[in-house]
């Protein structure tokens, strides 16, 4: 077993340079956002968390690879290549969503800070997309779960679920919409749990139950929950509530409720695809025995 040792090549390689660029630009973006001090809307809080968390993940990955700790991790618990590719995918999606949020909510012709934060976020997104495509095109890197189609579908489910939760609005005093929040909230942590369990291969083997069987049951329940939300959210959000004539996309409650409805159907489709592929055992999806 190879012992941890310092390897400067982890910093001087193209991969290391890309990680350094990600960390630098993300930190600058976070600092600019902090100085700007925009009101604490859920979209803004989400963006600040993403700009702060992604460089921390990149820094941890860089340190681990710099001291060859990932070789020990590979032996004991998980596929490091698969994990890092998955993190690049998730970071790319999160940075893309932050860029869209900033462009829609915080940019105007005279908003210098808004333009600056949007451009910086877009640069962050490009850097993480470059890493994702480099990893996916590298034939020497393994793709056991997260970097393969089953894991990528799970990442998309978690990502869309997060966007739904930070967009929830106009549900006070409406029991049907409160049920929708429950329907959105239940699948998200379980999806993340399944992702983590499949990454940590040693943990997966130690579980007292069949994770594939659990995933099948979870997917069926998630589809039912999202079907109920897909019916109830549009009815109780838009019935007797047509789009106002003056409804700018960046400050209209109706528009944000529409985002929730649209993302509900997107995630419902993802869970149905996941369930069908898992039941059929195709495209790398594992059917429970």
Account of the protein in words:
It is flat and about 65 Å long. It has helices at 9-12, 14-36, 42-66, 69-76, 80-105, 112-137, 149-167, 175-185, 187-199, 201-206, 211-238, 253-280. It contains twelve helices and no strands. It has 289 residues and is mainly alpha-helical. It folds into two domains: 1-147, no CATH class; 149-284, no CATH class. Helices cover 75% and strands 0% of the residues.
Order of helices and strands: HHHHHHHHHHHH
Distance between the termini: 35 Å
Gyration radius, in Å: 21 Å
User: What is the mean pLDDT?
Assistant: 84
Report the sheet with the most strands, covering strand number, pairing sense and barrel closure: none
Kindly estimate the percentage of residues that lie in beta strands according to DSSP: under 5%
| Unreliable residue stretches | none
- Give the domain tally: 2
* Continuous helix count: 12
Number of strands: 0
Helix coverage percent of residues?
over 70%
Secondary structure class reads: mainly alpha
General shape: flat
Keywords:
12 helices, Marvel, transmembrane helix
How do the strands and helices of this protein lay out in sequence?
Elements: H1 9-12, H2 14-36, H3 42-66, H4 69-76, H5 80-105, H6 112-137, H7 149-167, H8 175-185, H9 187-199, H10 201-206, H11 211-238, H12 253-280
């Amino acid at each position: 077993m190879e012992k941890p040792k310092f390897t400067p090549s982890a910093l001087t390689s193209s991969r290391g340079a890309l990680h350094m660029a990600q960390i630098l630009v993300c930190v600058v973006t976070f600092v600019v956002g902090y100085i700007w001090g925009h009101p604490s809307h859920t979209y803004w809080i989400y963006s600040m968390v993403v700009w702060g968390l992604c460089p921390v993940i990149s820094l941890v990955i860089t340190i681990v690879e710099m001291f060859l700790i990932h070789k020990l991790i590979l032996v004991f618990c998980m596929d490091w290549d698969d994990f890092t590719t998955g993190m690049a995918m998730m970071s790319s999606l999160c940075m893309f969503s932050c860029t869209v949020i900033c462009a829609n909510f915080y940019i105007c012709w005279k908003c210098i800070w808004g333009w600056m934060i949007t451009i910086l976020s877009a640069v962050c997104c490009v850097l993480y997309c470059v890493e994702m495509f480099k990893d996916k095109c590298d034939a020497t890197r393994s793709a056991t779960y997260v970097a393969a189609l089953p894991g990528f579908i799970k990442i998309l489910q978690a990502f869309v679920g997060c966007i739904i939760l930070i967009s929830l609005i106009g549900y006070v005093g409406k029991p049907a919409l409160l049920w929708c929040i429950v329907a959105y909230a239940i699948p998200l942590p379980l999806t993340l749990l399944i992702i983590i369990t499949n990454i940590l291969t040693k943990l997966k083997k130690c579980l007292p139950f069949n994770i594939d069987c659990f995933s099948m049951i979870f997917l069926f329940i998630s589809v039912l929950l999202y079907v109920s939300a897909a019916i109830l959210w549009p009815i109780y959000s838009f019935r007797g509530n047509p789009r106002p004539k003056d409804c700018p996309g960046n400050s209209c409650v109706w528009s944000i409720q529409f985002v929730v409805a649209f993302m509900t159907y997107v995630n419902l489709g993802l869970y149905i695809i996941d369930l069908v592929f898992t039941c059929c055992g195709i495209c790398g999806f594992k059917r429970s025995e």
